[in-house]
Amino acid sequence: KDAIAACEKEIEFETYATGMATEDLSAENKVAYFTAQLPTLTPTERNVFEQYLAGKSSKEIMETLAIKENTLKYHNRNIYSKLGVSSRKQLLELAALSRTSAGQDDPAHS
């Protein structure tokens, strides 16, 4: 039974990783994917991500990084795509879950 459960989790994770039926995945697998994808962020995407974790608004991030709104939107799309989320709210929720499940204070530094 454990082997079957492990196979089902692997299939579920692979389904999520390929972008299929993500809304049906368990929170655990979403967090695992999210955490596994953090290293794929470019330095600028990582910086934007960390700014969001610090509670900065879009306006504050644009000012801090000296970028325009469309540039921030571009980075947001890339971040969301890489981490398997569709909004800033979901990004922050998964970051919090990632932090909790890993026993860390900050998923950006994992």
Overview of this protein structure:
This protein has 110 residues and is mostly helical. The protein is 69% helix and 0% strand. It contains six helices and no strands. It has helices at 2-17, 27-37, 43-53, 58-65, 69-83, 88-102. The model has no long low-confidence stretch (mean pLDDT 80).
The helix count comes to: 6
Number of strands: 0
What fraction of the residues are assigned to beta strands by DSSP? under 5%
Low-pLDDT segments, ≥5 res: none
Largest sheet: none
Overall body shape: elongated
Give me the oligomer status.
single chain
Q: Average pLDDT value?
A: 80
| Radius of gyration from CA coordinates | 15 Å
Work out the helicity level: 55-70%
Structural class: mainly alpha
**Gap between N and C termini:** 32 Å
The string of secondary-structure elements, in order, is: HHHHHH
